Every structure is written in structure tokens, then in C-alpha cells.
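Rotation project, supervised by the postdoc (A.L.). Task for the rotation student: set up a whole-complex structure prediction and record inputs and outputs verbatim in this book. Inputs entered:
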Amino acid sequence: MSLFMASMSAKTRRASLSYLRPHAFSILSIAALQVTGVVMQVMSIGMLKSILDKSQSGYGNEYILGEGLKLLVFAIVFSISVYLASRLSSRVAAMVASQIRKDVLASALKVQRLDSAGDSATYTMTCVTSDAMIVQEHVFSSLSIYFPLPILAAAMVWCTYRISTTIGLMVLASMAAVVALTYVFSRHAATFQADRIVGQDMVARSLREKVTGARTIKAYSAQEYERAKFSGVSAFFGEKNKNATLSSYYLPTFTTAFIWIFIVFVYMIAALGMSQQTIRMPHLVMFMQFTTCIVSSLAIIPFICIQAPRARASMERILEVLKASGGEKPKTTTRKESGSALEVCGASFHDGFGRETAGRMDIAVPKGKVVTLTGPIGCGMTELIDCITAFSAPVSGSVAVCGMDVASSDPYDIRCAVSYAGRRSGVFSSTVRSNLDATGALDDARILEICEATGFIEYVRGLPGGLDCILSPNIMSGGQAQLLALTRCLLRDAELYVFDDCFFSMDAKTRAKAVRSILDVRSGKTVLFASHEMTTVGVSDMVFLIDGGRVVGSGTHKELLTGSPLYADMYGKLTGVMRCRGGCSGRRRPTSWRSIPKAPPPRYVCIRFWPSSRSWRSLRSRTSRVISYPGLWPWKTRASSTSISSR
Amino acid sequence: MEDEGFIDLNFITLTGTAVVFIITFWYVAATHANRELKLLALGINKSMREDLDSKLMRLSVGSLDGMRSGDAASKLATDLPAVFDLFSRDFVSYFTGNVMMLIILAAMVLVSPALALVYLVTVPATLYATRRITKKTKEDFRRKKESVDTMSSVMSDIIANHRTIKANNLEGAVMKAFEDYDSEFVRSTVGAETRVGMIGPLVNVAVNLGYVATVIAGAILMFTGDLDIGMFLAFMVYVRLMDKPLAASAASYYLIESETMSLKRILEVLNAPEPEWTEPEDGFEPEGSLEFDGVCFSYDGVEVLHSVSFSVASGTVAVITGPTGSGKSTLMNVLLRFYPLDSGCVRIDGKDVREISRRDLSRTVAAVLQDPWVFDGTIRDNIVYNRDWTTQEDLDRALRISGFDSYINSLPKGLDTSIGNDIHVMPLDARRMLAMSRAILGNPKILILDEAFSGLDPITESAVYEGLMRIMKGRTVLIVSHEKCLIDSADQVIRIESGRIAA
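Outputs recorded:
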């Protein structure tokens, strides 16, 4: 433990201590129990001397048995204290790990945009549970196994010192040497361990790519290419792993050999002492007991040497994640009365690569209007939507949502006023109900009413268990997921509803119904559609055409059609100029375009995963599985989650 | 040792030197053995991860889709080091610990059979007790590992939906739910650890009982004169030495349990059934006509394509349309041989796709799928992919046609910009264009566009469409879409409803 602490940087140490501090009382109790254990151990060795003395000086059997009884008591007290200590350590370790997980989650949730936290941080967050596990195991074994070692060592040194000053000092010196060696090694090994973790992450990412990219790899028959790519990664990791491994393997045997040689020397000295009558036989017996005790404890050193640097690396990685979210100051929202739901003044934005958009944007959306933003790809619309939903702030100029300035307001307040459905639809692995209404504030009647309006009800009706069915991103088609996101957005009570390009996977009829439902349900609230596809321009009170980061045209759809050549071009291409092109000979008109029948009930699989089934089974099965964790997502589980194997 | 006063100094020096030599020899031997062991484990680790990698590529698309949930691949990567530890350290230390115990026991019997008998009385009791606990802990470990997995799935679910959570102000709700779940998790781990923690103390009690019994018996034997003190001393040293392997095996037991669990999981993947497949001969040069003949396909026992039959002549543009979830994308997956069919077949130029080698198929058919896959690397790597014979002109042409060139030109590093799957800097439309460039770079005879145009603005869309039609002249294009304009401009429209061809 102390070694683990000592080998860390000051910052890591401070953070680690801050995790242990709330458990100071438990740790003190553990310390007390461990000290009791050590005292019992020392005393039981001490008993040996008296028994030997007595047996040699001719006391009776009864006396020996009496002493034996005492010895038994010592042994039992020792075991009980060790057991209690390990129980307490286990609790402390689990609490520490739990705190770490909560902190990581809290910091992940504090970050406004995960992509801005950096690639590695995003990845690490997914690994954080295993990191926390490593730390937990280390804290546990530190407190329960490593912790008594120094106490035991001190007791042993003291005992030998009492028997013979010279030998005691020599034992002390050798112990110091071993500790110093371990410390130096631990520091040395940490760098290798850090490298190893980098390599390990690379391997993990590569393996993950094989799963996510399965279709592409097969379609391009790129197995050889991928294999070559992986062997590079594999070689890198192998190198790092080899370094880390070979930097450590000799140490445990070395320390043990060192201690044994030392003990032989000590025995020689003791034998000399006996020949000079300075050391008596029972002393030698005890002395041998003490030294073998020390050697036994050293058996644990290899475990410390390997576990400590790894735990250290894990801890540092966790702190890295925690750090990524730091530095965001809480903002106080000042809200001005304003007639506009959205006011953009001379704003420019950063795009995904950190470049500033070219133009300055000015938009004013009066309350209660239905507005569409449109423009060619890369026009700056996505960046503007990021600002409206408080995921970023403008580089220059200002964006105000419902009278709140985005740059200076608390994102929480802005998001209370804005309900947003984005192109990443966000399907949680939980029930339909909690997917739609995560806070559990709405009753089923309202949820079903909105589902009915948007048309999502058809999907829900096809699910066994209806609203209680557990969803998974893998089993929903793109259009269904978009409809889910749209319904979720409409269920929230907000002042501004933003639909960011969230219709493109829907078929025409579904889309028309969804758009209609938005206009019906909004009850006078402002609606903002942002889409490259121009599918909502017809129903909007106002359309803003954006290009190159500035508004190049605004007005109603009709006005823009006549007023803006770019707009007319875009719209013209949309509505059928394309049908005159094609350039393919032998073109045939499509067969009759009949009304679209009712959507078929969707197929899906829901398998209850926890706590009753085995995780690795999923690797074997061909089915897509849904991991359900009762109590996580269904914030108010009204009925127990349904488990269905197939419909 | 009646004559305590007389000890031969030479004898002491001699013995001492001998012991030092023995220890040095042991050190050299043990270190060498250890090194060999580590190298062996490194080798196993290397071949294991490379096997895993190639196995993942051989598995069917269906089973890989199953692995997506809960990020099973990342878990595998954390299992690898655990298995490395198992081979490089714990397995052997467990083994040597047990051998050491046996040797010490033998030495005890040699020194004093009577005392050894007394000491051994406690052993069966210890063994019985540990067995009982072990059985329980196995279950504990399984459950703990499972909780860890679920925990990380929860975490990845949160990470994946981060934006949705933020946008809906759900941080508090998520946090609260997570805490509830976490406390459940803590309870289960503490249970497991406490039980494992019991093994150590239990062994300790047994060792101490043995110690007590030995001391008493030894004292009595010495009292009666049946045992001399030197023997007794040696015996007590052996008793103490027993602690070491016992402690080591208790410590490694804990690790071995969870490491075996990891090993099991890796083997599970390595032994997963692969689709039975003998790769046909290369050398197929099709024109590009397509025929679906009575294609039935079921997904998890539910039939989703019911005897779908249609054909597309080479050189035509066909649009496959139909309501959401009707099986359009499944058709494309079947064509690319991602899933095995129940019955019927898909033919290209009259030849069953199952009789066409993967290599030929990939040259013939290129697809832009709904969720374009982008891997860690530069944009150039992503587009050229495994076709390193590509010339810069080919690349430029592909970029121009897919409309991706202006996007690339706006990047400061152009084609050499690093992108990755985890970095969300590249918007979906850009990833679509990337996938399209990748697809047309190979000059395929058949091009599949699975909703490849959705989300693009009309100008880009029509420019890309126009470019595609120009280069795909005389080739077959299959478009999955519900855009009316695309449907209108197609040579052929195939409507799928509930997995059937609609009139």
C-alpha cells in the first residue's frame, strides 16, 4: 500500500488519498485488527520458547497442555482478527471503486461534448469499470494482505533485536534493502506498465473494429489487409508487453535468494554466539521461527510488484478521465424578456475540425412560428444547432435561445427550454417507456397519445409487452429509431422544439404523419426544423437558407422560390428535375404507385440478460441481444421487464 | 546436542558456503525457468490475440452483430492480459506451491513420522472446508464477472447516448439510476470477496491448529525423550515453511478463478461455430445481371423474407422501396452473402452467389451501407482500403463523383487527415460520401446504395446521382430508398412489403 502510494506522482497520491479518507475509521479498525493479529502471531511464537524451556526443565504434561490451550486461544484470536480485517477491507475497497465509478460517470455527464474531451478519454470511459475493478482488487489486497506485512516485519525485527542486538540490526538492514529494492523496481516498472496499457488499448480498438466493421471487411474481402493491419498493432503491443514482463520477472526470486543467503549468515553468527554461550537454544528456536516467518511473508512480494504498478496505471487513467471534465465553471443564467425564441447575431462557429465558419449568421425566429433552416452540406447549420442545444458556444457574435445567451447561460436552463431530436437518435437499452420518458413524470395515457399522433404507436403495438418491452439500438431500423427520438422530443414540455435532420430514414408516409403530428402537438410553441433535405419547407412559416455560414435568404417558401436562385435550384432538384436526367436508356415508368399499407409489425429479439443468464453466451449466439438491467433505465419500473425470446 | 559448548567453526563455514552455493544455483535456475515461462506466455498471448483477430473476421455477420451490444470485443481485449497472467504466473505458482507443500510434507515425515501425523490431522479438515467455500465462490465469481460486464455495458450505453442525455437534461436521472444499480453491484462483489477472504483465515486457523498440536506433541515427545531438540527445531521450521505455499496458493487462487473466467470467454469466441464454407475458385467475370429466386430468410427463427423473387437486368437502375422495416436492407445483406439463406438463391449472371468467391464478389459488388464504417486511420486509408494498386487519378475521380472532394479540400491536411470511429468530428453525410468514394473506387459491376442519399441536400444529391449514373452507365445499380424522385427516375422499381414483393 505504502509502496503503491510512494511510487505515484503527488497528484495521483493526493487523489487516491481523497478516495480513502472517508473510510479512515474503517482503515483504522483494519489497522487495529491487523496489529492484534500480528501481536497474537508474535506471542504464539513466544509461547514456543516457554514450552521448550518448561519441557526441558521437567515440568509435567498438564503444564504443557495448559500452555497449549493458551496457544490455541492466540491462534483463534489471530484468525478472527484477520477475518474481520479482510471483511472490512473488502467493504472499503468496494466503496472506493463505487465512488470512482460514480465520479467518472458524473464527470462524463458534466462534459458538454464527449468529442471535445478527446478520443482517448471517450474510449477510456468505456474501460473505466475494469479500471475501477483493478483498483478495487488492489485496495482489497493492500488492506487485507499487504498491510500487515510491515507491521509483522517490524515485530519480527524487534523480537530478534531483543534476542541479539547484532542479529536484530542485520535483519533490519536486510529488510530495508528488500523494501528499497521493491520501491525502486515499482517505480521503474510503472513506465513499462503505462506503455503496455497504451498497446492494450490499441489492441482493444482493433478488435472492436473487426466487430463494427464486419460487413465492410467482408464486402471488400479485406481480411488479408485487416490481418496485416492487426499484426502491426499486435507487434507493437507484444513489444511493450515483453518489456513490461521482462522488467519484473527476476525480482521475486532475487529477493527470496537474497533473504535466504542472509539467513544462513545469521545462523552462522548465531551458532558462533551459541558456542560463546551468548545465545541459548530456545532463543535459537524462536529466532528460526521469526526468520522463516519473514521469508513466508516475502512470498507475497511478486504479487505486490505486479499488482501495484498496474493499479497505479489504472488510477492514473481514471484521473485522466476525471481531469478531462474539469475546468468548466458553473454559469448563472440571466434571462431577458424577448419576443424571439431564437436570436442569432453575427455569429460564427467552430466545426468538427476546429475551423471557424466563414460567414456571420443573423437569424431571428419569433415565438410561436414554425421555421425551417436549410442549406447545402457544410453550410454551418449543424454548428448552429449545436449552439442552440448548448453543446457549444459561438466563436464570435451571440446566440440567444428564449432570451438566454448561450455563451453565458447554464446549459441546463437552455435545455429546459429546448427539446431536441437529433440525427443520432439515441436508443437506450431499456424499456420503451423509459426511452420515451426517462424521468417517469408522465402517465401512460399521455405517452400513448403522443405515440398515436406521431405514428410510433404502430411500432409499439407490435412489441410484446408494449411500452414495457426492452429496446436495443441493434434491433430498430433507422426510421423506427428516428420516430422514437421524435416522439421523445414531443413528449417534453419546452418552448422551442428542434428537429435536426431526423426524418431521413423514414418513408414518405411515415414522414408526412410525423411532421403533421409535430405541427398538431406543438400547441403554439416554436418549432425549428433543420434539414438539408427541404422536406418541411412547405409547412413552415419561414425558411432560412444558409450557405457558407451566413443566411443567404429568408422568407416563406414561395418568396424564396422566386427570390433565391440557390433555393430554387435546390428545390427544383428535389422535386423532379432529377427525373429528367438519369441518362439511362430503356427507362421504364414505375408501376402503379399505390397507397402504402400499414407498416408490418417489426421484428426484434429481447432477451433478459441479468441476473439470470450468462454473458459469454451472447458471443456464441447469432441473435442480437438486449442487455436489460432492471433498475437502471426504467426509472419507475411499473411492471417487471418482459423477457421474450422472439416474437 | 549434548555438547553445546563445542561447535566446529570450520564445519559452520563449510555448511554456510554450501548453502550459499545451493541458493545461488537455485536463483539462477529459477530465474532462467521463470524467463522461459514468461516468454512462453508471451508467445501464447501473441498467438491468442492473432487467432482472435482472424477468428473475428471468419465469424458470421450475425454472430458479430450479437457482439456489438455491450462492447464484447473490448472486453475480450481486457481478457487477454488476464489470461497472460494466468499462464505466466498464477498457474505455475499454484502448481509449484502444491509441489512445495508435498516436498515439505515428505521432509516432515522423514524427520519425525509421529509429529508429521499429528500435523497432518488438521489437513483433511482444512481441505474439506476450502472445498466447500470454493464451490460457493465459483458461483460468486461468475456473478461478479457478469456484473462487471453489465456494468460496462451500462457505461457504454451512457457514453453512446451522451448527447441525448445531455440534450434532455437527464443527467440527474441517469446518475440516480446508476447509483441504485451500483449499490446492488457493490453488494454482490463484497459478498464474493468476503467468501474468498474467508479461505485465507480458514487456512490460517488450520495451520495454527497444526502448529499448536505439533508444539504440544513435540514438547511431550521431548519430555519423554523420544525426540531430540535438533529434530524438533527442523520440524518447526518445516511447519513455518508450510505457510508460504499456503499463502501463495490462497492469493493465486483468487486470481486464478477470475483469470479462468477470462480464458473461458476467449475460448468461447475461438470455438464459436464458423459458417461452413469452402471458398470457390476465383475468376468470375460477370456482366452484372441479378436474380433473386425464391429467397426465404429468417432472423432468429422468424421468417422475414418470404420467397422473394425478382431479377434486374445488367445495366439497369433498380430502386428497392417499401415501408420502414420491410426487409429492404436484409435483401442487400443477403445479396452480399452476409447471412445464410433458408431457401432459394441469389444469382449474378446466373451463377449462385454462394459459388462465387469472396474476392470476386467484392470486385463485382460494392455497397454503401446505411451506417458507413470508418476505421482509425487517414481518410486516404479509409477510401483506398485494401486496394493499394489505386492510382491518384482513380482516387481523384472517385472523390469527384461522390462529391467528397470539396469536403476534403476544405480540410487543412486533406486526404491525410486522421479520422476514427470514435471521433465524431466527421458528420454522417461526410461518412456516407467517404463510403461512396470507397465503393466506386473499385469500378464495381453492381453498386448497392442503401439509403446512401438520405441526409444530403438536393444539390449535392443530384450532382452525386448524376455522376454516379455517368460512370455506372452499362452497369447495374441497386438503390434502397423511399425518395420519390429516385423512384421516378429508376428503370425498375421493386416494392417490398412485409418481406414480400408487392405488385
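Student's summary: Confidence is low (pLDDT under 50) at residues 1-5 of chain B.
Supervisor addendum: Chain B touches chain A through 224 residues (CB under 8 Å).
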